[in-house]
Amino acid sequence: MLNGVTMKINVDEYIINTLKEDITSEDVSTNAVMPNARRGKAELICKQDGVICGLTVFERTFKILDETSEFVCDYKDGDLVKKGETIGVIYGDIRALLSGERTALNYMQRMSGIATITREYANEIKDFKTILLDTRKTTPNMRPFEKYAVTVGGGKNHRYNLSDGVLLKDNHIGAAGSVTKAIEMARDYAPFVRKIEIETETLEQVAEAVSAGADIIMLDNMDNETMKKALELIDGRAQTECSGNVTKERLREIAEIGVDFVSSGALTHSAPIMDISLKNLTPIE
Fold first, then answer.
1. How far apart are CA 86 and CA 35, in angstroms?
2. Which of 25, 59, 184, 229 has a CA-to-CA distance to 10 between 20 and 30 Å?
């Protein structure tokens, strides 16, 4: 959850760097039309249906520029919004409202787009035990926002980063020499509290992973029949994750096979933005 403490500790730096990207020395346009401080307000308006996400980030962007700013909103992250609805009103120094507009909207549009597509994916398998996961295929310097948006949409986070868990992929296996050797080396190195997940591409690798004691076996880019055979081989001795070529249209048939998890990079790397605008800025003092 992106609460106040989390924002200040983990997220403010991201927002500040994004503001710096947009304002290298000054906001020339704003300074031209608003040379002095003056309080104003603007409306946040939804221009398409979707799942709203990033309200706290939106507000925090303006707070960084003007600590007296205030965002009045009756919605919360995860709510469905409709085209034409006014989501909220932001109050503050007009200079901050103008200078922070694009950064605040970029975050919210991106996060809402991810939350919306995740909700669509999650709804496809809501009647199955299979859990929908994201991946590390995130936009550089946007991971905390995009991972959070996935949870708002109804998905779960896979590991946050390389320090967060053991996932032995094809190149790790190549470096170690075999599936068995990779698992043995990871078991010897990683703390005992870490689960060991390994990527497999063939039934032979699946059988080897089971014998070597993997905790989670990823079935990578397998067709449905191969996945069914893989689950028979595993026979409950490890958790299973389907990954690769996961589309919304294929989700239900994957869940019907009975895998424990299904991960999709599309939740973050292919989500379109949600169209949201900041309009009707007016002075109030």
1. 29
2. 25
Q: What is the dihedral of CA 235, 238, 171, 165, to 10 degrees?
A: 170
Q: Residue 90 in 3-state DSSP?
A: strand
- What 3 state SS string does 153-171 have? HCCECCCCCCCCCEEECHH
Structure tokens at 123: 């709804």
- 146-168: b (≥16 Cβ within 10 Å) or e: bbbbbbbbbbeebeeeeeeebbb
Q: What is the mean pLDDT of the chain?
A: 95
Question: For 256-277, how does the pLDDT look when each residue is reduced to its tens digit (9 = 90+)?
Answer: 999 999 999 999 999 999 999 9
Q: Do domains 4-122+272-283 and 125-269 have the same CATH topology?
A: no
Short-list 151, 84, 69, 82, CA closest to 111: 151
Compute the distance between CA of residue 45 and CA of residue 139 in angstroms, rounded to an integer: 25
Catalytic residue numbers read 102, 137, 169, 199, 220
CATH architecture of 125-269: Alpha-Beta Barrel (3.20)
Residue 245: pLDDT band with limits 50, 70, 90: confident
Q: Whole-model pTM above 0.90?
A: yes
Domain 4-122+272-283 = CATH 3.90.1170.20: yes
Task: Select from 119, 105, 48, 120 the least CA-distant residue to 81.
Answer: 48
Q: Six-digit token pair at 126?
A: 């809501």
Q: At which residue do the structure tokens 């080396």 appear? A: 185
